[in-house]
Amino acid sequence: MKISFIGPAYPYRGGLATIIERLARVFQQRGVEVAIKTFSLQYPRLLFPGKSQYRTGEAPEGLLITREVSTINPISWWRVGRRLRREAPDMLILKYWTPLMAPAFGTICRLARKNGKTKVIVHLDNITPHEPHFYDRPLNRYFLRSVDGFIYMSEAVNEDLRTYLPNAKARFSPHPLFDNYGKKLPREEACGRLGLDSSLGYVMFFGYVRDYKGLDILLDAWARLKAEGKTKDKRLLVVGEVYGADDKYHAQIERLGLREDVVFHNRFVPDEKVAEWFSVADMVALPYKSATQSGVTQVAYAFDVPMVVTRVGGLAEMVPDDVVGVLSEVSAESVAAAIAKVYEGDNLERYREGVRKEKHRFSWEATADKIEELYEEL
User: Fold this and answer.
1) Are strands 234-239 and 119-124 parallel, antiparallel or unpaired?
2) Which of 95, 30, 92 is nearest to 365 (CA)?
3) Mean pLDDT, to the nearest integer, of 246-264?
4) Best CA proximity match to 107, nearest among 145, 67, 149, 162
5) How far is CA 14 from CA 55, 69, 212, 294, in A?
6) pLDDT tens-digit profile of 293-318?
7) Whether 306 contacts 341, CB under 8 Å
8) So what's the pLDDT on residue 260?
9) Model-level pTM?
């Protein structure tokens, strides 16, 4: 069998690239011939709100990754689509997370499928983006109609898919565990590396900071906890690059009197540093205002870290309430109560044990199995 992937991969950074590279390795271990076609240009600088799209370090060994797809150059779409039509992989697997990719991906898929052999399978993160635009539906429609089958990671995404393709062939497979960041470190060692006081407890917000992720709600929640005297031996870690300006968050911190309470690390965290942050965190807070699923929960699972998450999208599917953490409503009052509950009695250790038991249902092998089952159905 031959499989080609299209989507983010080295030198591009982030969880999407990790998913493609990790899945590629699973299929390689099964004796499949695998190739990854990533972007020569992913986002034009004007459309990318972060500081960099790229990661440092060496390319992953043993993976054939070529930079071929420009999202703004139709000639590259035609070239890649025709090449795939000639190469005739059994499966073409794409990662889809934003309608901005639809013109390129939809054109490539249509050309590739003309060989009568290649089946197109999409691993869906989102269909409707968290910050919607007027052009989302026509672009989604163009791409989704070029696909044979879908793997979705939350029921919210499946419901969205059915508004476009009611009879789509699709399988559920939960977001796999991000187990590629190394092992958990002794807490004191991790605190020393990060310059943190190991005598304090830490609640962590982790990942790209975007409006829909609710950092403003978390800061308000922390102010409530402080007013109740529940943060004297604790700090809030905000760890991740802010998309856009961070002024509003710093202004909110000042207004709420939280300057001494918040450690604001406004930088992308490279793979080799992820373990340090998760080794110091008592819990991870995801106060999202909207969501499908989140890769952050899957990093927390990998490091046995309990979670506080809001009841939006597929987050409740990933985080069973009062088993691996606490579910809350989308409000500062509810998030504050959830954080306080994690620290009550023996809950913190009980939730850690729950994470250790629950994590086993999120395997890469299971995702690969679902993809193969779907392929056989097409």
Assistant:
1) unpaired
2) 30
3) 96
4) 145
5) 8, 18, 18, 12
6) 889 999 999 999 999 999 998 899 99
7) no
8) 95
9) 0.88
